[in-house]
Amino acid sequence: MKCCKMCSKRSFLLVMLLLSGFEHIFGSEDVAHHSAHRVHYHKSSRRHRAIADGELRFEPEPYSKKLKLNSSGKIHCKVAGGVAPTVQWFLNEADPLPEGVSSSNGTLMVADAERRHSGQYTCKAVDGEKTITSKINLDVVVTPRILEPVAGQQLHVTVGQTAVLNCVASGDPPPTTHWDRNLTILGKQQEGVDTEDSVNATSARFLLMNNGTLIIRNVSAPDADQYGCTAGSAAGLDRNELQLIVHQEGELPPQESSGVAGKAVVVSISVAGAYMVLVLALMVYCRRRRLRRRQRGEKMELEMTEGREKLVEEGEEEKQKANGSAIQNGRLLGHEKDSGADNSEVSGISRASKKSGQYEHLSIPRTLLTEQITMGRGEFGEVLLAKIDMTQVNKLRNKDDGETEPKLRPVLVKALTTKDEIHLAEFRRQLDLFSRVRHENIVRLLGLCNEADPHYMLLEHTDWGELKKFLIATRSPEENAEYVSRVGAEHAPPAPARRAAPLAPQHRALLGAQLAAAAAKCALHRFTHRDIAARNCLITSKLQLKLSYPALTRGPDSHEYYKLHEQVIPLRWLPAEAVLEGDYSTKSDVYMFAVTVWEIYTKGELPFAKLNDNSVLERVKSGSLEWTIPDSMPEALGELLKRCWSKSPSDRPQFTEIYDELTVILQDITSESTSQKSQDKTEE
Ligand SMILES: *[C@@H]1O[C@H](CO)[C@@H](O)[C@H](O)[C@H]1NC(C)=O
Ligand SMILES: *[C@@H]1O[C@H](CO)[C@@H](O)[C@H](O)[C@H]1NC(C)=O
Ligand SMILES: *[C@@H]1O[C@H](CO)[C@@H](O)[C@H](O)[C@H]1NC(C)=O
Ligand SMILES: *[C@@H]1O[C@H](CO)[C@@H](O)[C@H](O)[C@H]1NC(C)=O
Ligand SMILES: *[C@@H]1O[C@H](CO)[C@@H](O)[C@H](O)[C@H]1NC(C)=O
Ligand SMILES: *[C@@H]1O[C@H](CO)[C@@H](O)[C@H](O)[C@H]1NC(C)=O
């Protein structure tokens, strides 16, 4: 069965290939090495020809933008070549600009963004007879704002009563919310906590309603605590806290109650503890099992997955090695043999053409996409956020669950707008990665819109979006001010502070472990990710990490990328061998993983923020780049990261090993905090 599924995915990709009429590229199978720079020398020689004839062109192509309501923004449209081009902006195809939007020297300017400014705009460059146009989307979004509870609100209840804690937020797109208790989020994994739809909803004491309200039934003294409501969407995050004060029967609020509330805080056993214990128990169980397996002499890498899958794959790869050589005579392969297409599964054209019909089911009509918001541009085209109706998708896939209500899910849309072979190959490589590697901490490929150009890759997205933005939102005003003063305002633009609850120590380590598990799974399938960074990870409102690939090389994250030899690379996240030799491997992913964990602990700081790109590059070349371990990081984790940053790739640990070590670190943190709690209790 597994084999069939695998083959079907492969054939699907073949169909893609056949449809687009492009040859596929092969990579060395081993640890998925590739040499990007060599590829790019070819690319630049192609480019030179274009520059020589001075053709009118956009440089760079303008990109879409998301503007906050009432904010101002600019979209540049720069042209090169031609004789004396004039550049002008229009609404839609050729309509005059709306009031409040102006165009000057090719720059579209919005002074005070309003909802009605959202829409498609066209930049038109005219040079004599010649005209070129480029379309972008402008989206005006409204950052979430919590209306209820108001900051610092108190709620007084008497023992035995029901407490209703509303969490109401406004924003566009509509935000989703979660409750935390004393900074640990509430979820149905915890004892006594349940959601409205659950079968046990009537008996749960803590009930999370779909409208965002938290209901606490039969309140008792230990329930008194600080409860926080966080609202998040693609447009941002907001958080307010409410203090629940519990009174004994007949007691008069509020003055006399403070003592009771204070005591209650100490007595209370963190509900979240139960969840952590559960997660840990699972991790420990898995680890034990793996260790046992290892003792039985099985292969290291087997541990992250079901053994059968692996065996099947090895068989496949053998076949492909034999198969691949025939196709390597293809036109492109002179220089792209080593371009990192470790997705060897696309090898057998004969195999796929037989089965091509089976892969239709990944195709999704783009009419199912709604509420598109442009995030920026990635390696091969625009990146959008949209909603997709999963009920319709399931119907398409014949997985009709009888639902008729639309189930809207956020989806990341990566458009393939370039025709460059290198970009096409990268598009396929990512399709492949997300279709083949299934893991709860990796986003899923939901489908492909390929009925027309541009093709869209649809990746699962989370309600709260980018991990990086979330991390920045957890900074307190003091922490944010300290960062800005340390590295300078030009490197760290002041961010709105403390819009989300800070992550507890266990939770930070847990995010690291989730990322390690995701990366280990990629490595197992012989995929390299090549852009592991907080900006490419997502977080859910339940604080689960998912590895994704927005890679907004142009747009809001562009300062995290650097153009070297005609290639845009995440310079500050890469080890020297990747920067200097274009050598990407699982071991360069290990290095990038460590940088991402560093980001989690520094609350989204830019690596080497004080240095400009050229200084970073100089230090990479001279091997003098030194990472510092944040104070908040457990010592063992710091040591682990240092090993991941080893100059020699072979000195860096395997992801499986990293995951195991993180499990132990997590265990230590949790047992420490548990013993702390029991100590508190005995003192009482
Ligand atoms: C935007 O400005 C309008 C009027 O100036 C104001 O009523 C509204 O509250 C503002 N909205 C936000 C989100 O700041
Ligand atoms: C437009 O460009 C011209 C020449 O480059 C410059 O003199 C003028 O100030 C610019 N206008 C604006 C509004 O930036
Ligand atoms: C509901 O409660 C019963 C008994 O308390 C328990 O056995 C069952 O697992 C619960 N179901 C869910 C979905 O939590
Ligand atoms: C949400 O639903 C609960 C129960 O139906 C209700 O008590 C509460 O007031 C609702 N909250 C809001 C904000 O409407
Ligand atoms: C409320 O909780 C108390 C213990 O805190 C328990 O004795 C009582 O039976 C509960 N009442 C209801 C109606 O569940
Ligand atoms: C809430 O968190 C603080 C700091 O982490 C801790 O000192 C306190 O004991 C916690 N209270 C409860 C009720 O868990």
UniProtKB/TrEMBL annotation:
Locations listed in the record: Membrane
Gene3D superfamilies hit by this protein: Immunoglobulins (2.60.40.10), Phosphorylase Kinase, domain 1 (3.30.200.20), Transferase(Phosphotransferase) domain 1 (1.10.510.10)
Signal peptide segment: 1-27
Any one of the GO CC terms: membrane
Keywords: ATP-binding, Disulfide bond, Glycoprotein, Immunoglobulin domain, Magnesium, Membrane, Metal-binding, Nucleotide-binding, Receptor, Signal, Transmembrane, Transmembrane helix
Domain Ig-like: 60-133, 144-245
Protein kinase domain residues: 369-664
Highest taxon listed in the record's lineage: Eukaryota
Molecular function terms from GO: ATP binding; metal ion binding; transmembrane receptor protein tyrosine kinase activity
Region (Disordered): 300-354
Coiled coil stretches, renumbered: none
Binding of ATP, residues: R535
Membrane topology, from the record: Single-pass membrane protein
Active-site residues (renumbered): D531
Biased composition (Basic and acidic residues): 300-321
Chain ranges passing through the membrane: 264-286
PANTHER family: INACTIVE TYROSINE-PROTEIN KINASE 7, TYROSINE-PROTEIN KINASE RECEPTOR
Protein name per UniProt: Tyrosine-protein kinase-like otk
Organism whose genome encodes this protein: Trichoplusia ni
Highest classification ranks of the organism: Eukaryota, Metazoa, Ecdysozoa, Arthropoda, Hexapoda
